[in-house]
Amino acid sequence: MNTNPALTRKRIVLVSFALVLALGVLAFGLDRNWWTSSNDDAAAQPASTSSPPGTSPSGPAASGSPPSGTTQGTQVAQGPTTGPVPVAKPKVQSVSDTTVVTGNAASVAVVKLIARVVGYLDQIHFEDGQLVRKGDKLFTVQQDQYKAQLQQAQAQLQLAQAQLDHAKIEVTRYVALVKKGAATQVDVDHWNYEQAAAEANILAAQANIAVAQLNLDYTGITAPFDGQMGKHLVDTGNVVGGAGQQVVLAEITQLDPIYVEANISSQQALQVRTNLDQRRLTLQQIQQIPIEVALSDETGFPHRGTLQYVAPVIDPQTGTLFVRGILRNPDHTLVPGIFVKMRLPLGKSAANGLLIPNNALQEDQGGRYVLVLDKNNVTQQRYVQIGQQVGALRVITSGLTPDDLVVIGELWRSSAGTKVTPDLKTIN
């Protein structure tokens, strides 16, 4: 049987290739099984060595920290804190009894601007609602006729001055002629009269100039004080002024200073009088009494002023006494009509009131309390009675002594029975 050598070589090559491919697949499978087995053994190794026989890895021995509320957590809270805790003795100062009433702000002055001379309204120099300064020009009335009247008055003054000069010359001349017998005394008397009349005409002309200048000045209407303009009520081109009913051009409102007005009850008024031992204060003493004011959304009483007026009688219809204070309002925080809280002194004061920061107070079902330190720097819960707030401080009426060390900060790190490292501070 004859065979083709080329075909035989081809078959040998194909068989060899197939054999090599089979060996490669077998080697890859063995290598993969070995890698997987090695990783599984490595993962199982720590689990088998970390737990003792009969103990689960998730048992108590494997837990890192106890859950919240356990005994261990309580022991940590009773140990020393990790940092200093600020403490301070109560601030001692004179404190007056006060009462808080609701009232409203009111403008010190509201002026209706009118034209004092007749004429067409020529110009408006402000925008509605604009803030203006005292002396700023707001309106201009037509000025032509008033400038002409001023020039006419000035001309009359010049004429009177010329007449006076002529009369003086004639008086001198006729006095000399009388001495020479060339004129009579009647002529001298006549020119003395002319001189006196000229002097009177000068005074009248000067007065006419002043009136004309005043009328010309009235054509420019200016702001009488610092304030805020309302909307203009008359447009340019309209006739304003005149002897009839005055037309209001606009209103200007003064915002700084500003009044705060309120009514106190007759009982509060009697309490004030009792605290003052039935003494009546003078107006000067009343205007030295401090008041504090706050808006409804403000904390504390950031605005301060003094009383300005107290009504002399109690309103029989309402049973209240009207009081009014005045305070600076440079930022125009208070606007007329807005409701405010006003704190008024009742005339009684404590010389040694105790004050602590308001944020040092805490509250539970038993009431308000603070944390104070004993001689071993262990915090103790102390219930207190509170009074009025003075700025960021609160008056403590009972429960504290001037020598108590009160925790005034880092309250989250302290609780009753906690030993702390005190950091002594001073309450300002």
Walk me through this protein's architecture.
With 428 residues, the protein is of the alpha+beta class. The chain folds into three domains: 91-105 and 256-425, Efflux pump adaptor protein, beta barrel domain (Elongation Factor Tu (Ef-tu), domain 3, Beta Barrel); 114-140 and 222-242, no CATH class; 144-218, Helix Hairpins, CATH 1.10.287. The protein is 32% helix and 32% strand. The chain has six helices and 22 strands. It has helices at residues 5-50, 71-78, 144-180, 185-218, 266-275, 283-286, and strands spanning 85-88, 91-107, 110-114, 119-124, 131-132, 137-141, 220-222, 227-229, 239-240, 248-253, 258-265, 290-295, 303-310, 320-327, 339-357, 362-364, 367-373, 379-383, 385-390, 393-398, 406-407, 422-425. Strands 2-11-14-13-12-15 form a six-stranded antiparallel β-barrel. A four-stranded antiparallel beta sheet has the order 3-10-8-5, with no helix packed on it. Strands 7-6-4-9 form a four-stranded antiparallel beta sheet. A hairpin with a 2-residue loop joins β19 (385-390) and β20 (393-398). α3 (144-180) runs antiparallel to α4 (185-218). The longest helix has 46 residues, at 5-50. Residues 30-78 have low confidence and may be disordered.
What is the CATH-assigned architecture of the largest domain?
A: Beta Barrel
Q: What structural class results from the helix and strand content?
A: alpha+beta
* Main sheet: strands, sense, barrel: 6 strands, antiparallel, barrel
Fraction of residues in β-strands: 25-35%
Q: Kindly report the name of the CATH homologous superfamily of the largest domain.
A: Efflux pump adaptor protein, beta barrel domain
**SSE topology string:** HHEEEEEEHHEEEEEHHEEEEEEEEEEE
Termini distance? 123 Å
| Helix content estimate | 25-40%
What is the name of the CATH topology of the largest domain? Elongation Factor Tu (Ef-tu), domain 3
Shape: elongated
Question: So what's the CATH class of the largest domain?
Answer: Mainly Beta
